[in-house]
Amino acid sequence: MEISLILLKQIIELFFIMLMGMAIVKCGLLKSSDSKILSVVMVYLVMPCVIIHSFQIHATSRVQKGLIYAVILSVIVHIIFLLCNQIFAKIFRMNAIEQTSIIYSNAGILVIPLVKALLGSEYVVYSCAFLVIQLVLIWTHGTSLISGKRQFALKQIIKNNNLIAIIVGAVLFLLHVSLPDVIDSTLNTTGSMIGPIGMMLAGMVIADSSLKKLFCTARNYLSVLLRLVILPVITLIVLRVIGASGWVSNGKSLLMIVYLAAITPTCATLTSLAQLYDKHVAQAGEVYVLSTILSIITMPVFIGIFQWIFA
Hints:
15 helices
């Protein structure tokens, strides 16, 4: 239970930072739309620094096996999500935003700082596996679902900063190239802002939302319940049944990283896609905000259950 308590502490800290983001908007110091500036800093600077720095580790056979293991698990988790979505979409007659909201998590912003706090910097590299799989699916399946057209956004995948950073980091890793200490330290220092900036962004978005409408719209709870509770339960059962934690020597820790990515709130990118294709924009924002707030409770609970099941 120790890790779940550490996670709770980390999430509470991030929650307070989110409140700070709300406060600077509510006080009139900034507008909610100003969050776009922070988004640019996050996407084009902080995230690439985190990813490239995470690959600055020794390319031992154990690390390589761990990365392959994390990729396989990430594929399995997304297959579970996609199959479950097919069932839930028919039962509840869910629209495109509701479907993508339960499939795609906000792993990029939340998982990296949490993994760093829970397991250490050397484990951050394994979270990249989940990010790659989700990135490809968002710009293929996700885009197709929201737009209502069959399309493959190859250009968006190739130009994505996270993918470019992962490729750069992976090449350095495979070629055993170590960056100079001053550069690597700079990347690490810049990357340490990922958690605070991510939650401040969420707070600025929430500040412009109607909390009454947010909490009183019953339909919003469907997507949030599926994303934060039902899918984590199903995923946990499947991972336990297939004995995933025993596939590699440090399987429990790596499995927890993938599972942590799977139980985070709805992906923030979906709000941008909803705006791009003019599809249920308000609902996309509401589900993102509501799932972010409620994940403060659900994530520590499910990590506690994870520890108990895989003890």
